[in-house]
Design goal:
Strands 1-4-5-15-10-11-14 form a seven-stranded mixed sheet, sandwiched between helices. It is built from 19 helices and 15 strands. The chain is α/β, with parallel strands linked by helices. The two termini are about 35 Å apart. The structure holds pyridoxal-5'-phosphate. The site of pyridoxal-5'-phosphate has 19 residues, from helix 13.
Length: about 450
Amino acid sequence: MDRKILLSEKDIPKQWYNLAADLPTPLQPPLGPDGKPITPDMLAPVFPMNIIEQEVSTQRWIDIPEEVLDIMYRWRPAPLRRAIYLERYLGTPAKIYYKDESTSPAGSHKPNTAVPQAWYNKQFGIKRITTETGAGQWGSALAFACQLIGLECKVFMVRISFDQKPFRKFMMNVWGANCVASPSMETNAGRNVLKEFPDTPGSLGIAISEAVEQAVMDKTGKTRYALGSVLNHVMLHQTIIGLEAKKQLAMVGIKKPDIVIGCAGGGSNFAGISFPFVADKIHGENIEIIPVEPAACPTLTKAPFVYDHGDLACMTPLLAMHSLGHSFVPPPFHAGGLRYHGMAPLVSQATVEGLMTPRSYHQLKCYESAMIWAKTEGTICAPETSHAIAAVIDEALKAKEEGKEKNILFCYSGHGLMDLSGYDAYLSGKLTDYQMSDEEIAKNVACFKDMPKPSNKKTGKW
Ligand SMILES: *Cc1c(COP(=O)(O)O)cnc(C)c1O
C-alpha cells in the first residue's frame, strides 16, 4: 500500500479545465453600475487583456504555457497522499486521500494561480502588480511569483495582520515585494478612511479598494491588479490540483472518488480539487462534493444567491454569487482565508444547480480535528484546511457506521506553520465559537433589496 502517490513531471496536466464549458445552467454575467452586463474593455484598466479573455472564456480546455509549467515544476506535480494513520485512528473502512498543496514554496495552493497571473501580466508588458492580503497567504504567494517572473509587487496588508502577524510580511520582503499596512496614506481610499478612523484595524474591503486604485491611477499604464480567489480565471488555474489527483487515483486503481471535500473561502482550492470531478458528476457519475465553510461566515449554507460587489467600496462589478453582503465583517475567528463575504460565481452557480452539498463547522471543532490530524498524520495544517479535515473525519466515521469502503478525496490547502498563534489560543482555552444568528444575516442581506437579481434557474437533475 502506497502512502504517497507521485506523478512524474512528464505526466503533469498540460491544460486547465474550465467548468464554465459544462455547467448545465450557464454563468450569469457580471454587471456594471448601470445594471447592464460589463464588457471586457471595461475591465482593461484593472486586469491585462489576456487574463480578461480567460475570465470570460467558455472553452473547455485551456493550454498551460510551458514557461508557467517550468516554474511550477519546483513543487508540482504535488503528492497525493493517503492518510493511513488517520484511517487507523478512526477505525474506518474508508480510504482517505489528500492532495498536499502545502508543499509549494509559499505553503499553500495560492502559487498555482499567482504564477500564471504574474506570467500573463509580464507577457502583456506590465511592470508592476498591486494586490491586497489579509493574513498574508495571497500576498506571499504573489510576491514569490513576481520575484521569479521579474515584476514589481505591491501588497496592501490589512493593518491588524500587518501588526500582529509579521511573519508573512517578512516572507514578502524576502521575495522582494513592497508590503504596506492598509489603510495607507498612499491612496485616496486609504487617506479618506484614516481621516475619519485613524485607529482602524483595516479590512480586506479597504485594502482591495487601495490596490485597485493604485493600479488604475498609474499614468504609465504599466500597473495592473491581481486577485487570489473568487474570479473565474483563478478557479481555472487551480484545477491543476484535481486534474493531477484524477491521474494519481487512477494509478492506485480508483476510477472515481465517492466524496470530494475542500474548505471554501472565496472557493479556489475547493474548485481546484473538485471541478474535474464536478464534470464527471454532470456526465452521470455519483460523487458527493462538499465545500466546507466556517459557521461564523456561512456564505453557501445561509446566504442568498444575489448580485453583489466583491469589495466594500463597491469598485468591482456586481457578481452573481452567494453573499453575506459586501459590508459584512465576520467575527475575528482564526481561519483568515475563510473570512470573505462572497463565494466564487462558478461555485455559487454549481451550488444553485444542486451539484454541491455545502456544510459549515464551528472553529473549536475544526481545531479539535486539526489536533487529531497532527497526532496521527503528523503535520500541522492551516486553520482553513482544518475545516476540510473536520468534514473528512465526519464522513470517515459515517462510512464506518455504514460499513462502507468509500474513497474520500480532499484538498490539504496549506500548512499552519505561520498560524501558530491560533493553535496557541486554542491550546490555552482562549477560543470560542461564534454563532451567526439568522437575524444578523437578515440584517446584512437587506442591502440587496434594490439590487438586480440573478436568475435562480436550475435543471432539477441533482
Ligand atoms: C487562502 C486560503 C484558503 C481559502 O481560499 P480559497 O480561495 O477558498 O481556497 C484556504 N486554505 C488556505 C491554506 C489558504 O491559504
